[in-house]
Amino acid sequence: MVHLRDTKDEILARIRRIAGQIAALERAVQSGAECNETLHQVAGIRGAVSGLMSELIEDHMANHVAAPGLTNKKRAAAAEELCTLLRRHGR
Hints:
Structural class: mainly alpha
Radius of gyration: 17 Å
Shape: elongated
Oligomer: single chain
CATH class: Mainly Alpha
CATH architecture: Up-down Bundle
Order of helices and strands: HHH
Number of helices: 3
Number of strands: 0
Distance between the termini: 24 Å
Strand content: under 5%
CATH topology: Methane Monooxygenase Hydroxylase, Chain G, domain 1
CATH superfamily: Metal-sensitive repressor, helix protomer
């Protein structure tokens, strides 16, 4: 994702925060945390991953589907890739 150069550090910071949330969830499960606490942590992780996914999808759209100068063939291929990704994400 060469076009992410400008936001790479921000994206990596988000990924590291998600990794921290997952580590906290693992510790909670290992220590026998209450169900509600565990569920809240999972919900937070899901929200963080969804936010990251949305940001990456927007970037993909801007750089591979809607960018000026792309051929119709490249746009169609990028749109198909995005549709495949969204189907996977929705599972």
